[in-house]
């Protein structure tokens, strides 16, 4: 029997009627909004949704709409689960990292982008390898590109697990010496098996491009959040979903090829890319008989700065500052495809636009929580 889990709501209303921030004990930070402005409410059971009430405005009930899916899998279903199953997890906000992001350069610090994951594959001969990236969005959900899990040209590869808390693939545990000479070490990485794979039903891959290139991976067990394993936020509110990001500088990260000689990086890399207007990008790709859709974001770096083959499925990220000037990172794109020759500067990179798939993501999670 479902037991109502009491959630304390703290909501600060603004006198001018603007949207205010709120907080729940289980699902973290949120916005106090009307029901029709919160897609995540569709995932929650009615009993739990009631406990998210944070007031009323113009005779309409308001709910604390979580900013992310951080602890969605932790909603209790019976009395036995109402104990504090993951007190550490409830204190973690999505899209926040321990270390400040280092500007410039391509090498990340040890605690940057703790939601970046590596997807493990098993070959027919039993050997394992990591050939795609992904992004942690909740305790047991990772989002990646559909072509990373349903590539018709890689039938001999099977997704087996994801690796979280990784930074340098050559060492375990990872350590980094700061400017003062102090050594900062992370716990050993965590490998968790994947028990369900959900590529988008309409995924299609051809010489004319890739469509609906998004997939969700459900992990066999929830991960415990640490300073080195945290979820990113996804754009659940309509203000972020409405941004086309043209002219914005966004961040990509991954362990992919970082030069034209197909050399893989052992350390997580990052780069800044600029979003290109859709029409301009579409004209560039039409020369190669590839038509783009509004469900994709086009972005390019300068010189060799861009995503390459090994970064497929990795994140395209936006750093947002809330009312209290606290930075939170949002997943706005998933690396899909681009130039075949890394670093040539010939074509921009193409990313699946996450905001176009929020309903699909929420429906998939809602129907497969257990």
TrEMBL record:
PROSITE patterns: TRYPSIN_DOM (PS50240), TRYPSIN_HIS (PS00134), TRYPSIN_SER (PS00135). Residues 1-17 form the signal peptide. Residues 102-366 form the Peptidase S1 domain. One of its GO terms (molecular function) is serine-type endopeptidase activity. Pfam families: Trypsin. The keyword Disulfide bond applies. GO terms for biological process: proteolysis. Keywords: Calcium, Disulfide bond, Glycoprotein, Hydrolase, Protease, Serine protease, Signal, Zymogen. Coiled coil: none annotated. Belongs to the peptidase S1 family. CLIP subfamily. This is Peptidase S1 domain-containing protein. InterPro entries: Peptidase_S1_PA, Peptidase_S1_PA_chymotrypsin, Peptidase_S1A, Ser/Thr_Proteases_Immune/Dev, Trypsin_dom, TRYPSIN_HIS, TRYPSIN_SER.
């Amino acid at each position: 029997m479902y037991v109502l889990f009491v959630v304390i709501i703290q909501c600060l209303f603004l006198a001018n009627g603007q949207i205010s921030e709120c907080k729940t004990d289980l699902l973290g930070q949120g916005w106090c909004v009307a029901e029709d402005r919160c897609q995540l409410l569709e995932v929650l059971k009615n009993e739990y949704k009631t406990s998210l009430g944070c007031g009323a405005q113009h005779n309409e009930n308001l709910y604390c709409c979580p900013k992310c899916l951080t602890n969605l899998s932790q909603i209790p279903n019976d009395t036995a689960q109402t104990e504090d199953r993951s007190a550490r997890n409830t204190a973690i906000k999505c899209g926040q990292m321990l270390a400040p992001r280092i500007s410039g350069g391509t090498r990340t610090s040890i605690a940057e982008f703790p939601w970046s994951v590596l997807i493990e594959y098993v070959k027919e001969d039993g050997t394992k390898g990591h050939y795609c990236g992904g992004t942690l969005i909740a305790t047991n959900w990772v989002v990646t590109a559909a072509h990373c899990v349903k590539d018709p040209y890689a039938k001999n590869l099977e997704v087996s697990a994801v690796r979280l808390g990784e930074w340098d693939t050559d060492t375990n545990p990872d350590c980094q010496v700061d400017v003062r000479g102090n050594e900062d070490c992370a716990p050993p990485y965590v490998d968790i098996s994947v028990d369900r794979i959900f590529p988008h039903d309409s995924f299609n891959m051809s010489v004319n491009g890739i469509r609906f290139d998004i997939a969700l991976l459900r992990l066999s067990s929830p991960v415990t959040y640490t300073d080195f394993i945290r979820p990113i936020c996804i754009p659940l509110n309509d203000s972020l979903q409405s941004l086309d990001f043209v002219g914005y500088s966004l961040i990509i990260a991954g362990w992919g090829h970082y030069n034209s000689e197909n050399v893989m990086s052992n350390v997580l890399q990052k780069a800044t890319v600029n979003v290109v207007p859709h029409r301009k990008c579409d004209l560039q790709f039409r020369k190669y008989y590839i038509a783009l859709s509004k469900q994709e974001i086009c972005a390019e770096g300068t010189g060799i700065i861009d995503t390459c083959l090994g970064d497929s499925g990795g994140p395209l990220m936006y750093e947002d500052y809330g009312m209290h000037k606290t930075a939170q990172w949002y997943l706005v794109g998933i690396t899909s495809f681009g130039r075949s020759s890394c670093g040539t500067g010939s074509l921009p990179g193409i990313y699946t636009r996450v905001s176009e798939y929020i309903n699909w993501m929420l429906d998939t999670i809602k129907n497969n929580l257990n």
